[in-house]
Design brief:
Layout: H1 6-16, E1 22-27, E2 30-33, H2 37-43, E3 49-55, H3 59-72, E4 76-79
Parallel strand pairs: 3-4
Antiparallel strand pairs: 1-2, 1-3
Helix pairs in contact: 1-3
Keywords: Sugar transport, Transport
Protein name: PTS sugar transporter
Organism: Paenibacillus rigui
């Protein structure tokens, strides 16, 4: 398994931090706060299936932006 380039991790983290909503990435049995760059850097691998949980006042926009961003970088993601 190979990790993603730092620029991808930073881009995802910066996008998440633009929203007030809680954005949590579920991978296997782990739950990672997408607003935590450290959590992302040890979690994001290019060949895994991810689930995103987004809740909060701007969740509709956050869902749209985050899904588009994950797909842009060819990361398999579903919303739960």
């Amino acid at each position: 398994m190979s990790g993603l380039p730092t620029r991808v991790i930073v881009e995802i983290n910066q996008a998440a931090n633009q929203f007030q909503s809680s954005i949590v990435l579920k991978v296997d049995n782990r739950h990672i706060d997408v607003k935590s760059i450290l959590g992302l850097s040890i979690t994001l691998l290019s060949n895994q299936q991810y689930e995103l949980q987004i809740h909060g006042p701007d969740e509709a926009e956050a869902r749209s932006v985050m899904v588009e961003l994950f797909r842009k970088h060819e990361l398999s993601v579903t919303l739960i």
